[in-house]
Amino acid sequence: MMHLLSHEHPPVEVRDIRKAFGANQVLAGIDLVFRRGETTAIVGPNGAGKSTLIKCLLGLVRPDQGHVFIGGINAQQDAAARRLVGYMPQHAAFPGSMTGRDMIRLVEELRQEDRAPDLELVRRLGLGADLDKPFRQLSGGTRQKVSAVLASMFSPPVYVLDEPTAGLDPVAGAALKDHMAAERERGATTLLTSHVMADLEELADRVVFLLDGRIRFDGTIEHLRTLTGKDRLERAIATLLEGDAA
Amino acid sequence: MVLILVIWGLLQAASVPERMPGHSAGTISERIAAAAPHDTVHVEAGVYTEPTIVIDRPLTLLGAPGAHIQGTGGHELLVLAADSISVSGFTFSGVDRTFMEDRAAIRVQDARGCRIANNTFRGVFFGIYMARATDCHIESNTLRSQITSETTGGNAVHAWYSTHLTIANNRIDGFRDGIYLEFTDDSRVEGNTSVNNLRYGLHFMFADRNAYTDNVFSDNRAGVAVMYADGISMQRNVFRRAWGASAYGLLLKEIRRGEVLNNTFDGNSVALLVESTDHMTFHGNTFAENGWGIKLMASAIGNVFSDNTFRGNTFDVSTNSRTLDSRFEGNFWDTYKGYDLDRDGRGDVAHRPVTLFSVLVERHEPVIYLHRSLLVDVLNVAERLLPVLTPVELVDPQPRMRPPL
Amino acid sequence: MMTTLLTFHIKDALRSRWLFAHFALYLIITEGLLLASGTGDKTLLSLINVVLLLVPLVGLVFGTIHQYNSREFTELLLTQPVRRSVLFGSLLAGVALPLMATFALGVFLPFVWHGGVTQDQGLRLALLLGLGSVLTITSVGAAFMVSTGQTDRVRGIGTALGLWLVYAVLFDGAVLLAVTTLGHWPIEKALLGIMLANPVDLSRLILLQVFDAAAMMGYTGALFTRFFTSASGFIMAGTALLVWMLLPLWSARRRFLSQDF
Question: Which of residues 6-35 of A touch C (CB under 8 A)?
Answer without folding.
Answer: 21
